[in-house]
Specification:
The complex is a heterodimer of chains A (497) and B (497).
Chain A: H1 3-18, H2 26-48, E1 59-67, E2 72-78, H3 80-99, H4 107-126, H5 130-151, H6 156-184, H7 192-197, H8 202-219, H9 228-235, H10 238-263, H11 265-291, H12 296-317, H13 320-352, H14 357-360, H15 365-368, H16 370-384, H17 390-405, H18 407-431, H19 435-439, H20 452-470, H21 473-483, H22 486-496
Antiparallel strand pairs in A: 1-2
Helix pairs in contact in A: 1-2, 1-4, 2-3, 2-4, 3-4, 3-10, 3-13, 3-20, 3-21, 4-5, 4-10, 5-6, 5-10, 6-8, 6-9, 8-10, 8-11, 9-10, 9-12, 10-12, 10-13, 10-22, 11-12, 11-18, 12-13, 12-17, 12-18, 13-16, 13-17, 13-20, 13-21, 16-18, 16-20, 17-18, 17-20
Chain B: H1 6-33, H2 39-63, E1 68-70, E2 75-77, H3 79-98, H4 108-126, H5 131-149, H6 156-187, H7 192-201, H8 206-222, H9 232-238, H10 241-266, H11 283-303, H12 308-329, H13 332-359, H14 373-376, H15 378-392, H16 398-411, H17 421-446, H18 461-479, H19 482-495
Antiparallel strand pairs in B: 1-2
The chains are: A mainly alpha (497), B mainly alpha (497).
Chain lengths: 497, 497
């Protein structure tokens, strides 16, 4: 059933393209219906997900030979981690479409590219054959370029090209690593589960692991390869930023967790400290740069780098708590960053046509669009890691995990959280609750009211963050068993030694 | 001299005979029936007859069964040869259809006849193991190409293209002939597969090195591998579009097949090795140098092109470099990958040229002519999107699988397993460079607004048909690569060559 999330997305893209050009407005209805359908499928699958008690927590969906002579299968499967990511994708897809309800320019093409991207992302999260995984991974990259270059704003073609080239460099590294592993393991199977059985030599793992990890890390915003992320986020249209931060960056982190780490455990052990340090630098650097940005959207762009740093740090803790925290953080950041970008890009920029915080300071937006201010407040405190929201659950677990593996890093990462509070509060104050605007009696120019689709999407995302924050067991019960599978167990066992 | 079984020979030559009859029919039609008709009808009539003849020849190829060798390899018919013949005939058919869009000349009949003769030459070229036959067939094809390239009498760049093509081609033929005569002199054999015995007796013969170098230079011109690529950009740009498309596709199939046969069969036992830091003299390291130079130079030079046809030319040089990887692997899987790649590449390039033929018919193929094409003709742009993404190697299109297949072949080569990783790394690195210029072209089509209010483009039915079919091919061959590769690989594994 989960496989239909992929097919529905691609079918939706085709259907949108095939609509007659007079019915361009109907495109968004079709797109929304498809995205909703995939989201509902994901929710049902997650609710009914019950792997056999004594068997592997990885449940096959489809497994048929695709290119038999090279050992390529069409192998879709799911475990708890994939399910969490599928849920996130569904949420981001629905919210993104609701927030792009005002797209007037070439809507059919917009939603076609959008749905192809979503389909590719679903595919990545459900593939257990590395070749298939890579196919979906690339499918998810190309539409990004067009979404940003055609419908974007500031320096859109530059941002789009930078993002595309960084992604392609990353995927070339990943492909080289996958092919090398495939060749060394005998060249008989691309299946992740089969390859994981092979004992690669220590020397091989020590150079392939950093290659593949950095390849994935580029997409996950790994410092110092993160520079595409802020420019890409700023250039992208609102839904583009939401998907970029919400799911595309997660592709990289997910790839690292699913492919790079289980295949090369000795490589992970050798490079653990190094990549943890890079993750930590990402946390601090992203937060400090976000603190001094003038452009509202850049603040959120750099905050993504910072939050993804937490994910990478969590991955490198190599213990159950840290890994679980990393996955929860992927989910949580996907929801919260989507919300923040929606406020900045859709609610504020589309109305005020201004993103410079110093200019916004004079406008007292909290009075003209109070809903936007409230949404940003909620998303902001969630992003800071206030208890009760998903960000808290995630970052707490990561810090606990990091404390066990490298206490110094944990302390410094804690400082990152404080910085996170600082830049969010600064942006919140400047953009919405500035004193001298609040003091003046003249109201700002009337702005169009926040529309129903926007409200619906914002409430959906806020509610998700709140529910996960109050009852994280929903996700953790999915993630923890998945970390015990034959594939993933090798990661957390290492720390016990 | 052994007696020749003419009946058997006829049987395996039916497709070629059909082409000769078709050529005569076109000549007769043009000479006797079409004198008084308007130009358009003469073109249509000629192409119609040629198309029927080519379809008939394809049917005859399909009907042939088994593996036959006449006169010990003077003429060969086996599944791989038939596959290539089918591909060449299909490419010729599509080129004939394309020539209806740009009726370059008043000499309709002559153009079609030369196209048929070139096809005939290529068909014989791929089905012979005999040095003289190879050379004669190659000259038949090349001489037809020279004339075809200069068919726009009133166009200076067409004349330039023809002259350059002729001069370069003539010199390369001389090199090739010199090399082949040395081979004959050294071995006393004209059949490639019999030469091995002579080398085994005396592998240190210095003249053999000379012969090898001469042959590689001669064939390097034909496949446009750097540094022997000088003619390609001018021919691709100046020649009439159907000619350029044919040179870029079918002649490449022929050229690569001959190169593969001469190297793999003629120089068998003299492979040497291109493994990193373990070089051994032979033809493999020689080709490895060509491959690296082609990949690097082709991709870098393409970056600075502003003419779409020159861009395709430089990308063709780079693709020659990738294809050489299959040969360098020097085993059946590598050759099978080469066969797959050269066929899918030919079809893709043909499609790209088809789009150029419609979008820039006046010969001005600067970037700007493609600006905003997506708004002038969505269908055409979508086809171009498919072709260009396939050339760039984006899944699930044929170009992606072709690349992976080549890389897997090179990595798992039986002669030097895992030793060619450095070549694969170079190929992946340079292909990242290629994304830039492919995306630039797509950006012109999809992002840049049209410079003035140009009318919508509605290509002729024949061209729509060709482009549609080609786009479907590129999709289907990418999704189901086993259509081509399974049989090829199995046959090559079993039968050698």
């Amino acid at each position: 059933m989960l496989a239909w999330t992929i097919y529905l997305s691609f079918l939706g893209a085709a259907a949108v393209l095939l609509l007659p050009s007079q019915q361009e407005r109907r495109a968004k209805v079709v797109a929304l219906a498809m995205a909703l359908a995939t989201f509902v499928l994901g929710v049902i699958a997650a609710a009914r997900f019950a792997p056999p008690r004594d068997g592997s927590p990885i449940v096959d969906i489809v497994r048929v030979p695709w290119v038999a002579s090279l050992g390529i299968d069409y192998h879709l499967a799911a475990d708890g981690i994939s399910l969490v990511m599928v849920l996130l994708t569904g949420l981001a897809a629905v919210a993104g479409i609701l927030f792009s309800w005002n797209i007037e320019e070439r809507p059919r093409e917009f939603f076609a590219f959008y749905l192809v991207l979503i389909g590719g992302v679903y595919g990545v999260f459900l593939s257990f054959d590395l070749f298939l995984f890579f196919v979906f991974y690339e499918i998810a990259i190309v539409p990004k370029y067009f979404l940003i270059a055609i419908w974007g704003s500031t320096r859109r073609t530059y941002g789009a090209m930078k993002l595309a080239l960084y992604s392609f460099v990353g995927s070339a590294m990943v492909l080289l690593g996958i092919l090398a592993a495939y060749g060394v393991a005998g060249g008989s199977s691309f299946n992740l589960l089969d390859l994981a059985q092979h004992a690669f030599t220590r020397e091989f793992q020590q150079w392939v692991f950093p290659l593949v990890f950095v390849g994935f890390g580029i997409l996950a915003g790994l410092w110092p390869f993160h520079t595409w992320a802020p420019t890409g986020h700023v250039a992208a249209p609102t839904a583009g930023s939401m998907l970029l931060a919400g799911v595309v960056m997660k592709l990289g982190a997910y790839g690292a967790l699913r492919v790079a780490m289980p295949l090369f455990p000795m490589g992970v052990a050798a490079w653990q400290d190094f990549f943890a340090a890079l993750g930590l630098i990402g946390i601090l650097y992203g937060a400090m740069v976000a603190l001094v940005q003038k452009d509202f959207k850049f603040v959120i762009g750099y905050s993504s780098v910072s939050h993804m740093g937490f994910v990478l740090l969590g991955l490198m803790t190599l213990n159950g708590v840290g890994l679980c925290g990393a996955v929860v953080q992927m989910f949580s950041h996907g929801v919260i960053a989507g919300l923040l970008f929606a406020v900045v890009g859709r609610m504020v920029y589309d109305r005020v046509h201004e993103r410079d915080l110093d200019v916004l300071e004079g406008q007292g937006l909290a009075r003209s669009i109070p809903f936007a201010a409230a949404t940003f407040l909620v998303a902001g405190v969630a992003s800071m890691g206030l208890p009760g929201f998903s960000g808290f659950v995630a970052e707490l677990q990561i810090l606990v995990g990091a404390w066990r593996s490298f206490p110094t890093f944990a302390v410094l990462a804690g400082a990152g959280i404080v910085l996170g509070a600082a830049y969010i509060l600064r942006a919140l104050q400047k953009a919405f609750y500035s004193d001298h605007a609040m003091g003046s009696s003249e109201p700002g120019p009337p702005l169009p009211a926040i529309s129903l689709p926007e409200r619906a999407a914002a409430i959906l995302l806020m509610a998700t963050s709140l529910v996960i924050g109050l009852y994280p067991k929903l996700l953790i019960d999915l993630i923890l068993p998945a970390l015990q599978s034959d594939l993933m167990r090798v990661l957390s066992r290492r720390s016990l030694l | 001299m052994i007696g020749i079984d003419y009946f058997q020979m006829m049987q395996s030559l039916w497709p070629e005979i059909a082409l000769v009859i078709t050529a005569a029919a076109v000549l007769g039609f043009d000479q006797f029936c079409a004198r008084g008709l308007p130009l358009e009808s003469r073109w249509r009539g000629g192409v119609l007859i040629a198309g029927i003849g080519m379809l008939a020849a394809m049917t005859l190829v399909v009907l042939q069964k088994g593996a036959v060798e006449i006169q010990d390899g003077m003429l060969i018919s086996n599944p791989v040869v038939r596959l290539l013949k089918l591909a060449i005939l299909a490419m010729a058919f599509f080129c004939a259809c394309l020539s209806l869009q740009n009726r370059e000349s008043r000499h309709a009949g002559e153009y079609v006849i030369l196209l048929l003769l070139a096809t005939l030459g290529l068909l014989i070229l791929v089905s012979s193991d005999h040095l003289l036959m190879i050379f004669i067939a190659m000259e038949l094809a090349s001489l037809s190409f020279y004339v075809l390239a200069g068919f726009q009498l009133e166009n200076r760049s067409s004349a330039e293209a023809a002259l350059k093509y002729f001069l370069f081609g003539g010199v390369s033929s001389a090199f090739l002939l010199f090399g082949l005569s040395l081979l004959y002199g050294l071995s006393g054999e004209l059949l490639l597969h019999k030469m091995t015995m002579a080398w085994r007796a005396n592998p240190q013969e210095p003249l053999l090195v000379l012969a090898l170098v001469m042959v590689v230079i001669g064939l390097g011109f034909k496949i446009a591998a750097a540094p022997f690529h000088g003619w390609a950009p001018d021919v691709y740009q100046g020649a009439p579009i159907p000619t350029a498309a044919f040179v870029a596709s079918a002649s490449k199939v022929g050229g690569f097949l001959v190169l593969a046969r001469v190297m793999w069969s003629g120089f068998s036992g003299l492979e040497g090795s291109a493994a990193w830091q373990a070089w051994a003299p032979g033809w493999v390291p020689l080709l490895a140098v060509l491959a690296v130079v082609s990949m690097v130079w082709g991709n870098l030079a393409a970056l600075s092109q502003t003419s779409v046809r020159r861009l395709l030319a430089y990308s063709a040089i780079a693709h020659s470099g990738y294809m050489l990887l299959g040969l360098i692997a020097a085993d059946p899987r590598g050759i099978s990958a080469l066969v797959y790649y050269v066929i899918t590449y030919g079809l893709t390039t043909l499609g790209a040229f088809g789009v150029v033929a419609v979008a820039a018919p006046s010969g001005n193929d600067h970037w700007d002519a493609f600006a905003g094409l997506a708004r002038r003709s969505p269908g055409l742009s979508f086809c171009m999107l498919v072709f260009i993404l396939s050339l760039a190697g984006i899944p699930p299109l044929a170009g992606f699988f072709g690349k992976v297949y080549l890389f897997v072949g090179a990595l798992n080569s039986q002669t030097s397993p895992h030793a060619l990783l450095w070549l694969v790394a170079v190929a992946l690195g340079t292909s990242v460079v290629s994304f830039y210029y492919y995306l630039q072209l797509l950006k012109q089509i999809y992002v840049t607004p049209p410079s003035e209010n140009l009318p919508a483009i509605c290509p002729q039915f024949s061209v729509q048909f060709v482009l549609g079919i080609l786009a479907v091919f590129v999709f289907v061959l990418g999704l189901f690569p086993e259509v081509i590769m399974a049989k090829t690989e199995i046959f090559l594994m079993e039968a050698g060559w």
